[in-house]
Task: inverse folding
């Protein structure tokens, strides 16, 4: 439990091989903290387990993925930026539960940015696919997503921004409004979209 694949509080770390963390809980693929810290994945990173996270950047750190990044688990996070930047590239995120978020940017007095340019972000069981909070920006492009029952697709609060371009998604249905998935919940004016295609899956 609490395994970490890559870590830096200063300097640069890079994975060109394969990191696979599947045992235990509360695992993390990469943690970068501080403006002098950066990370890059040109290989494969796979993280699973309850309470796990894919990539976490804080306080001005940065991370870039150019190859394979897979995150799964209950009550888990995919990509997190709190005062830093994550260039996620193409991702495969499949998390479940009310404590799960596919991609989050915000929660800092400085700018937080997450970019996803392909892949799949799937949530079920009450989680949130894409969440932008204070000083956070999500840039989403050419990505597929599934918002499961009792889950939320896009959630923006404060001055958080979600920019959407060429997304394709499915919002899962249910027998009543409390069970159905929800596409958008916006407090403020933080969502801009170009060509988002969604379908309702009524069950």
Result:
């Amino acid at each position: 439990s609490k395994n970490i694949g890559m870590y830096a509080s200063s300097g640069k770390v890079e994975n060109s091989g394969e990191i696979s963390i599947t045992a235990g809980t509360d695992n993390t693929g990469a943690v970068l903290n501080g403006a002098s810290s950066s990370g890059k994945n040109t290989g494969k990173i796979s993280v699973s387990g309850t309470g796990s996270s894919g990539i976490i950047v804080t306080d001005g750190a940065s991370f870039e993925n150019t190859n394979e990044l897979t995150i799964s688990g209950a009550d888990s996070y995919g990509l997190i930026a709190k005062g830093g930047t994550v260039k996620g590239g193409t991702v495969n995120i499949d998390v479940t539960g009310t404590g799960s978020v596919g991609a989050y940017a915000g929660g800092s007095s400085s700018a937080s940015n997450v970019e996803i340019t392909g892949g799949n972000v799937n949530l079920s069981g009450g989680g949130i696919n894409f969440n932008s909070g204070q000083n956070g920006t999500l840039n989403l492009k050419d990505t597929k997503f599934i918002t499961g029952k009792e889950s939320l697709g896009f959630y923006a609060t404060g001055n958080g921004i979600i920019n959407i371009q060429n997304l394709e998604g499915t919002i899962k249905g249910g027998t009543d409004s409390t069970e159905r998935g929800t596409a958008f919940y916006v407090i403020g004016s933080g969502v801009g979209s170009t060509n988002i295609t969604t379908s309702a899956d009524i069950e």
Summary: DSSP finds no helices and 20 strands in the chain.
